[in-house]
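Protein modeling request. Please complete all fields; requests missing the sequence field cannot be processed.
Requester role: graduate student
Desired output: 3D structure, C-alpha cell encoding
Chains: 1
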Amino acid sequence: MNELSPLRLWMMRGSFTALILGILFFHLLPLQTSTGGLIWPDLVLGFALAWSVRRPEFVPAVLLAAVFLLADLLLQRPPGLWALLALIACEQLKAQSRSLRDASLATELASVGAWIIGIGIAYHMVLALLLVDRPAFGLVVIQMIATALAYPLVIAVTHAVMGVRKAAANDIGGKGARS
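Delivered output (179 residues):
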C-alpha cells in the first residue's frame, strides 16, 4: 500500500482526532480534587505541532481549527483566541516543515519551543489588552515551558506509538506532488 494512500491519509487524520479527543477527555476528568497542584503541559498543542512538523498532510488547517476551537469551548477559554494563535503556529511550522525535515532535532525543538512560548505570551497579552480575566503570567510561562519540555516525549510517542515520522525527501504525496 502506498505510504500516502487516501485510506491511510484519512486513517491518520482520524487517529489524530481520536488522540486529541482522548487528551481532552482525560483533561476534563475530575482527577485532581484539591486546589493547586501541578501545571500540566498543553498536550493538544504539543501533538498538533509535532504532527504539523512531521507530516503536515495529516493535519489540515480545518481539522486543526476544529480541534483547537473544541478545546477552547471544553476548557472554558475565550473561544477562538487560543485556537487562532495555535493554528497560526501550526501553519507556520507546516510551511517550514521542508527545512525542518533535514534539520537536526535541536533545531526542531528550538523552533517549536519558540512558537510555544510566543503564542503563550501573545495569548496573555491579548487577554490583558482586552481586559479579560486571565491566569497569572507566571502560571502561563510555567505551562509553556512545561509544554516545550514535554515536546521530546510527544515526538517519541508520535514516532514510536502512532507511526508518524518525518517525510523523506523522496516521498510522493497523495496528489503526486513531492511532500
